[in-house]
Amino acid sequence: MKATEVVPALAALAQENRLDVFRLLVQAGPDGMAAGHIADRLGLVSATLSFHLAQLKHAGLVTVRRDGRSLIYAADYARMNGLIGFLTENCCRGHAAMQAAACAPVPARKARRRETSART
C-alpha cells in the first residue's frame, strides 16, 4: 500500500461512526452486510450511514455489490491488511526478536485489559 492510499484510509477510520461501521463489516466476514442491517445494528439513520459508507468506499476500505434491492457492503480485507502492513513494516527496525514481542497483534479487548493493568 502506498502512502497516498494510507492517508485517506486513516482519515476515514478517524471518525467514530465510520470506525464502528468498518469494525462491524470486518466481523461480518467476506459476505458483508446489507446497509439496512448495518443501520439497525449501529442505530444510524440511512442518510448518515450512506455518507459514512461512501467515505469508507472512497478510501478503498469497503466494497459494495447489489443483491436484488439491497446494497451489500463488505470490508476489503486486502486493503485492511495492506494498511496494517504499511503501519508495521518497519516495526522494531527489522529485529526479529523485538518484533515477536512488540509487534504481535493483540485483540483490542486484551490490549485494553493490558493498558488498564499497567496503569494500576
TrEMBL record:
Its keywords, alphabetically, are: DNA-binding, Transcription, Transcription regulation
One Pfam match, given by its short name, reads HTH_20
Annotated GO MF terms = DNA binding; DNA-binding transcription factor activity
Q: Where is the HTH arsR-type domain?
A: 1-95
Which PROSITE patterns does this chain map to? HTH_ARSR_2 (PS50987)
Under the heading CDD domains, the entry gives:
HTH_ARSR
Q: What is this protein called?
A: Helix-turn-helix transcriptional regulator
**Organism whose genome encodes this protein:** Vineibacter terrae
